[in-house]
Structure of Serine protease K12H4.7:
Amino acid sequence: MTNMWLLLCLVTSAFSLKTLEPPPPEASARSSTNITEGWLPVRLNHFDASNTDTFQMRYYYNSQFSRGPYIVIFVGGEWSISPGWVRSGLAYELAERIGAGLFYTEHRYYGLTRPTNGTTVAEMRYLSVDQALGDLAQFIEYVRSDDFEGGRFRNARVALFGCSYAGSMATWMKLGYPHLVRTSLSDSGPLHAQQDFPEYLEVIATALRVQGSQQCVDDIESAMKRINELIETEAGLDTVSTLFNTCSRLRRSHLDLSTFFWYGITETFAYLVQYATPGDIPRACDHITNKTLGDPIERLSSWVTSQPYTQPCIESRYFEKVASHTNTSYDSPDATMRLWTYQTCTEYGWYQTTTSSRQPFLNTVPLEYFHQMCKDFFNDSIDENLLRSAIVRTNRLFAGLEHLPDGVLSVGGGHDPWSPVGPNKTHETHLAPVYVVDGVSHCRAIRPTGSSETEQLEITKQSSLLFMEGLMTDTRSSSAPLLASRLLVLALVILYATF
């Protein structure tokens, strides 16, 4: 699975940090091989009764444990779904515990769920989280009806699992459709929309410092300062182009230089930290601080150019990026990134700028770079004014971090760069617990129990299952699941302390 993940990174643009399916775990030894791929006609526009157009929404279904009135759904995000997440993972384990049907839904416009002929701006008018939540609502109503397997899940209780943006959807689904969803787990789900998101790189700096060393952060900053000195001259541009293996010679254009710094350097560290497994960050910092490999810029460049995400070369030409992301075919190499970029430009922002001084990448990628990208990828109407209005709307509709719905369990990693726009312990209530797992990154809690990187992560997974099982089966009173999960945490901590 690790090799497949690296292969995906090789062929995927750096901006699509959030457009790859979380790599599915190995199939459980108990898993059935009889996984069904299904299609459901859903409404194109859930908010216009006069529009009766529909499209086919794809899903996977594992009926292996279906014996009770329960449905567990792994929510698909901005990626193409595959059967792996109905064969293993935390959602699979909850389905096994309570005897639920297990489903995996695909988000409109992504994968093979294609509502339109292409992805022109006009055709993407129905690409929004509002409409995607409407798809989920219609899907749940269908599975709970007599039309699905003769009413097998008639009026069944529903649990949702989601990670990253799909985790946001799992939370917002419980907020917007509480009559359809009993409980949700959101792993690493960002909830607060904002244009400028410099905190992302601040968390990366913290992870490099804690798991690597302060020297690692200092050497990156020294290298960045040297790069900025070199690009002031033509000879220096040649040197940087050679060191970092750019696809063409760097030019002293603000857009090209921001493209180089973002795609080539900051996003390479984003991949490292966001998808880190134990040992990844220390190994990177060992290389970056190894003085036998040259001065800081030589060490940084040799590490960056050795990463799978920068192969075969670093594309620094801004308008080459624009050209590849204005292709409106669903089958174009950058179709998924085009779709997700549209959502960021019209709903969320979350642009990972270098506007903070608490990170080592200097001020090399300003917010204006992303404003320009939105206009150039789409059209001049997709500008910063639209984005500001869209962000106000998103936070007004879904409450940002002001309110967590009852029955939603939120998990975040202490070194997840997305954690600053997700919930923390200050946001939890007794019916909406929040777990922040020290030292781990993005989307680690949806993976199977028994394979956790840390004891705290394993305890969090076990507590999450207990909380959700209690709400789904009514085996405890409404306030007992959180208390029981806290007691489980205490018991496991004591158990681990004895070894």
User: Anything to note?
Assistant: The first strand starts at residue 35 and ends at 43. The domain at 195-391 is CATH 1.20.120.980 (Four Helix Bundle (Hemerythrin (Met), subunit A)). Residues 1-18, 477-481, 493-499 have pLDDT under 50 and may be disordered. The chain has 16 helices and ten strands.
